[in-house]
Amino acid sequence: MPSYNAFSFILAFFFLRRSLTPPRLEYMRSRTIGELLAPAAPFDKKCGRENWTVAFAPDGSYFAWSQGHRTVKLVPWSQCLQNFLLHGTKNVTNSSSLRLPRQNSDGGQKNKPREHIIDCGDIVWSLAFGSSVPEKQSRCVNIEWHRFRFGQDQLLLATGLNNGRIKIWDVYTGKLLLNLVDHTEVVRDLTFAPDGSLILVSASRDKTLRVWDLKDDGNMMKVLRGHQNWVYSCAFSPDSSMLCSVGASKAVFLWNMDKYTMIRKLEGHHHDVVACDFSPDGALLATASYDTRVYIWDPHNGDILMEFGHLFPPPTPIFAGGANDRWVRSVSFSHDGLHIASLADDKMVRFWRIDEDYPVQVAPLSNGLCCAFSTDGSVLAAGTHDGSVYFWATPRQVPSLQHLCRMSIRRVMPTQEVQELPVPSKLLEFLSYRI
């Protein structure tokens, strides 16, 4: 018979184990909307098929993703959703019965969405949509002549390649417009300024960010240096005044995009930081890291306001800095400003509220690499290692009056200006994002 001490030890171990186990919350499963499965040849190499980026056009007209190797596919988003409703969730992208109408050479059909398959000439690592506002002038004011006159309805797609080149395509025709050559390594991410100026920023493994003016025929305006290792991702603030860039060695940088100078470096992660995104009001910044965490920052003062952990108990800095099997690959802010989505190596997609430390919805996903919300925020798209894309319905909740007030005022005021408002302290607390 086991001794009394043995029973005591077993009981103590049982209760200790329970204390280290997270509470069993019944997370709600997100509803699957559809799948776009990449075609696979019998002897197709697995390396090079990765879908590193998915993107929705600013006006919601198109969805684009890398099918692997050199191919980017552009599909009209509304027709894609209609196909899911008519044919179920599965949609193999080379299926002739489900194929969307292709773009033809008829100029009268230019602005009618058509499917395109673009051969970029090399492995595609990044892509981004950009739309123009004719009234927004080029920053290079001395140039009086341009090869391209971008109109009101101009929609561009930028693709970043393995050889360091960036190719700019006309979305409506599928034609190549510009070939930007200056990076010496992989172009890992691309982002357009949201103000319609067609300012493009590229992040590369050559440790630099480069600023391009597409209204000036792709002139490279500035090189932003500061990263000591690969730059993985970059994102503009909604007003285009600030840029965040993240990379290896725990680096999170904020840049002033009027002066092209560094504002501050944010410290807190314990491993490479691989993704970043601003909230719609510009008051919050989300960063995802291989240290199993997503941080929500106040970019105006550098405070960490929220931490979303993907491993329980939270790993120590030494363990978080290594191979912990919970690397967070991607993070994206919803357009309601209330939710974010994260994608990790534990085969889960998580939806979080910015004011709660546990997921409100989850979805299973193996080998995920990237995610992005649709323009209206109703759908999340996620890309995988095999070049496929999966779609889920996002959480839909009525925002509180406090959230609506905060977003309204933070669209026009940074943290410091809100704190200096001549209003009662309780009202200031009501209007502030707090830890």
Automatic annotation (TrEMBL):
Signal sequence annotation: 1-21
Sequence intervals crossing the membrane: none
Associated pathway: Protein modification; protein ubiquitination
SUPFAM superfamilies attached to this UniProt entry: SOCS box-like, WD40 repeat-like
Pfam families, alphabetized: SOCS_box (PF07525), WD40 (PF00400)
Keywords tagged on the record: Repeat, Signal, Ubl conjugation pathway, WD repeat
A biological process term (GO) from this entry: protein ubiquitination
GO CC, any one term: cytoplasm
InterPro entries named in the record: SOCS_box, SOCS_box-like_dom_sf, WD40/YVTN_repeat-like_dom_sf, WD40_PAC1, WD40_repeat_CS, WD40_repeat_dom_sf, WD40_rpt, WSB_SOCS-box_domain
SOCS box domain: residues covered: 391-435
Keyword Repressor on entry: no
WD repeats: 150-179, 180-222, 224-265, 266-307, 328-362, 372-392
Function: Probable substrate-recognition component of a SCF-like ECS (Elongin-Cullin-SOCS-box protein) E3 ubiquitin ligase complex which mediates the ubiquitination and subsequent proteasomal degradation of target proteins. Recognizes type II iodothyronine deiodinase/DIO2. Confers constitutive instability to HIPK2 through proteasomal degradation.
PANTHER family, per database record: WD REPEAT AND SOCS BOX-CONTAINING PROTEIN 1, WD40 REPEAT PROTEIN
Name of this protein: WD repeat and SOCS box-containing protein 1
